[in-house]
Records
---
Amino acid sequence: MFFKLKSYLKFLLKSTNQHGVHSPFVFAFVTKCLYSKRKWRHKKTIKVLLKSIDYFDFRSIKLDDPSLKEIIQHVNPKIMFASNKVDILYTKGLSKKRFDQLLSEQILHNNSMILIDGIHSNQKKEELWEDLIQIPNITVSIDMFHCGALFIRKEQVKEHFTIRI
């Protein structure tokens, strides 16, 4: 419990809202997606997932948590649940080795998004998050405390953002 509180206080000191974002891609994502008025009665990570699917018009998703399938289909019936090439990967944890495997198998592609739940829930997950944002293929990383979003965008310079949602 103390770890999470300490982590949250550090997050608050580093975090910003849309006014601290200088990347057009991330500014649009924050203002038009994360801060959109659309409301769902789910935890924050699931709200980010649903808003992101809608905002980017993602067509295929890979889930670590099959219990979310019904929620996602209800909100976005056109989404496909795939194990091959995917637009968005939702996971509760991802190691650098697993990321490299997904990339080498071409499951992830340019413009893929990875949404990781609970990046600050314990020290190990926070360390995994820090390792992931250092990977050269991940060019945009957004720490939202409850979750983290990673983007593979070859056309963008590497940047990390800490955003309050």
---
Amino acid sequence: MNTATVSSPSIRSANTALELACVCARLAAEHKARDILVLDMRGQTPLYDFFVLATGVSRRQLHTIAEDIDANLNRLGEERLSIEGYEASKWIVQDYGDIVVHLFSPEARQYYHLEELWEDAPRLDWERN
């Protein structure tokens, strides 16, 4: 008799997701990103737990940050679900399920101003977590 097993995607704890969001923020900081924020989205939307926002000043810098975050999370066993904006390099969005990384050019950051849109979301101290 053959049986099929269905595996469900792993579900991270909020603490693990927070740790990974802080890893993303630290990696952005290592690459000299500006205005780095980690927003706690758990009380704002059921879709994501944390947003990481950072600003880069050039296409090359944004690509380097995006690629380093992806490589490091991949080494930690995390799989990116999608990426948007990589080619245009004005706003790169990397979706890791419960963590979404937003990398902006200065103009895009000012235009979209996600921290104002999500002003009720607590800002976390990613340097201490």
